[in-house]
Amino acid sequence: MVVKSRTENLSDVREFINSLVRKIGISPEVSEDIILAVDEACTNIIKHSYKFFPDGEIIVKVKYFDNKIIITIIDYGENFQPHKIHKPDLQEYYKHKKVGGLGMYLMKTLMDEVKYSSVPGKYNQVLLTKYINSTS
Amino acid sequence: MAEFNASVKDQGDISIVYLKGFLDAHTAPVLENTISELIDKGKYRIVANFKELSYISSAGLGVFMAFIEKIRENNGDIKLSSMNDKVYNIFDLLGFPLLYEIFKTEDEAVKKF
Predict the structure, then answer these.
(1) Rounded Cα distance, B76 and B68, in Å
(2) Residue B53's domain is classified under what CATH number?
(3) What architecture (CATH level 2) is domain A2-131?
(4) So what's the pLDDT on residue A133?
(5) Pairing of β B77-81 and β B45-56
């Protein structure tokens, strides 16, 4: 799936993932985790890679094999390096009026693996992996 | 497109905000505007009722974080109620129960003011 870098397209991306995970037969609980993680990744791309430029491209690819689902999300915006992802201390957030950063933590918590890579000046890529057990 | 709306009902000096639909980075400004308007009117006692909210991402949680300090500085609060398990799980993952009171029902939240 290819969408433009607009938040109005987030629901289409969620629906795309939803339809695929249903076809695979992944459980609703795990499906919800995957959908949210993809939403968070795409939101970060819109905000940080494209800085709300509305005509960037976001490419979402899904592979399912060996009981794992790998979602690859590619963009051509600016590279941003994720900081060390740790559970946000909400008290600190509250004190320092921080609002962002929750999305990356959710991605890391909801998925089994999150891998970022990029070719500077060319593209950025994030791979989200979830292991699907046989009872899902 | 997944829709979201936030409606407000006054109950004495408490404002009940009913969230409905899908709260993500695209629809979060709707909630921001709703809460911002309440603050502009000096309404700092807010209950957010999640009963009809189907989906929330971190953008939605961020809206609460953005306003809570000002609300509490004015001796108010945002209490959260009526979440389904899916929505509550996201709040719980991010540690929100440590900072916000979350209730099963709207009535419980209102009584806490």
Answers:
(1) 9
(2) 3.30.750.24
(3) 2-Layer Sandwich (3.30)
(4) 76
(5) parallel
Q: How many domains does chain B have?
A: 1
Q: Which residues of B fall within a CB distance of 8 Å from A87? A: 94-95
Contact between chains at B69 and A105 (C-beta distance less than 8 A): no
Contact B5, B58 (CB under 8 A): no
- Sort A90 into a burial class: Cβ within 10 Å, 0-12 / 13-18 / 19+: buried
Burial level of B41, CB count in 10 A (0-12/13-18/19+)? exposed
Residue B28 is predicted with a pLDDT of: 97
* Nearest Cα to Cα of residue B66 among A125, A100, A109: A100
Task: Tell me which residue in B55, B57, B65 faces A40 most closely, judged by beta carbons.
Answer: B57
Alpha-carbon gap: B15 to the closest alpha carbon of chain A (Å): 22
- State both tokens at A125: 């890529």
pTM above 0.90, yes or no: yes
